[in-house]
Amino acid sequence: MQITLKLYATLSDLLPAGAVRNAVSIDVDDDVTLNRIIDHYKVPRELAHLVLVNGRFVCDTDRDESGALVEGDVLAIWPPVAGG
Fold first, then answer.
1. Other CB atoms within 10 Å distance of the CB of residue 7
2. Class for domain 2-78, per CATH?
3. Which of 19, 45, 53, 69 is least enclosed, having the fewest CB within 10 Å?
4. Which residues, listed in sequence order, are joined to residue 57 by a DSSP beta bridge?
5. Residue 22 CB partners (closer than 8 Å, separation 6+)
6. 24-82 per-position pLDDT tens digit
7. Cβ distance 77 to 51 under 8 Å?
8. How far is residue 52 CA from its own chain's centroid?
9. Number of alpha carbons in the 13 Å side-chain half-sphere of residue 74
């Protein structure tokens, strides 16, 4: 199935070629877990601080569950933010 992967701030450098405005369409297996996608794109798990599927937060304990995504979903990942 196809989803959109968005990586923000310092993580945007990890997106594959062809990414536009911090986003790229990717093909994933139907039973993929969020952590498998995070690992595949070499996002250090400790930097996958804010993970959203269609704007809804997914805590780190739920990121190993398969079936969290369906065709057309948007997976967005932000690193921790420092400063004021």
1. 24
2. alpha beta
3. 45
4. 52
5. 6, 7, 8, 12, 15
6. 999 999 999 999 999 999 999 999 999 999 999 999 999 999 999 999 999 999 999 86
7. yes
8. 7
9. 8
Domain ranges of the chain: 2-78
Quote the tokens at residue 34: 């969020």
As a whole number of angstroms, the distance between CA 49 and CA 30 comes to: 24
- DSSP symbol at 10: G
What is the spatial order of strands in the sheet that 56-57 belongs to?
23-27, 2-7, 74-78, 50-53, 56-57
- Hey, is 39 helix, strand or coil? helix
Residue (of 71, 53, 54) closest to 63 by Cα position: 53
49 CB-contact burial (10 Å; exposed 0-12 / middle 13-18 / buried 19+): middle
Residue 83 banded pLDDT, cuts 50, 70, 90: low
Here the tokens at position 48 are 């996958």
